[in-house]
Write a structure and sequence with these properties.
By secondary structure, this protein is an all-alpha fold. The protein has a domain of 78 residues: 10k-s Protein, Hypothetical Protein A, Chain A. 70% of the residues lie in helices and 0% in strands. The radius of gyration is 27 Å and the shape is elongated.
Length: 151
């Protein structure tokens, strides 16, 4: 019984030592997973693992969403597309800061014409928000015609 008690007395000190070593190791692990957009694009666009790709892709997606003023749907395909475009842009000017590269991409995205469906949808919504809008007629106009329906 005495030997069992003496073993459990050491447990708090061993547990404390383990917690301390884990706490000291966390900043080292976290520093490796950081992303700094002020670095040259050549060093940022080198991915050691999937986490790096996601960090860079998410940052750029947020930057573009802010510039365009709309939310962007992100998935593996979109992430891959954005990163491919950035790598192509970076290869033409490798000394450029990554944030400047993202700014160039954002300017291109804002300047690009919107799809016709998006423009038509905005015009339709504006008609609903007009002060003298006839909601019944506008809603009836949304009913699909036989040519709109596919089997």
């Amino acid at each position: 019984m005495f030997s069992l008690c003496s073993k459990f007395r050491r447990f708090p000190s061993v547990f404390s030592a383990l917690c301390l070593s884990a706490a000291l190791a966390l900043p080292v692990q976290a520093a490796r997973d950081k992303f700094d957009p002020s670095q040259p694009c050549v060093s940022v666009l080198v991915f050691e693992d999937v986490v790096d790709r996601v960090l860079v892709g998410a940052w750029v997606s947020g930057y573009l969403a802010k510039a365009e003023g709309r939310l962007r749907v992100m998935g593996p395909e979109e992430l891959s597309k954005i990163l491919t475009v950035l790598q192509n842009m970076c290869s033409s000017s490798p000394g450029l800061r990554f944030s400047a590269l993202a700014e160039q991409l954002a300017q291109k995205a804002v300047a690009a014409p919107r799809p016709r469906a998006s423009v038509a949808a905005r015009q339709l919504l504006r008609r609903f928000f007009a002060a003298d809008a006839d909601y019944a007629a506008l809603t009836a106009g949304l009913k699909p015609r036989p040519g709109d329906v596919r089997a």
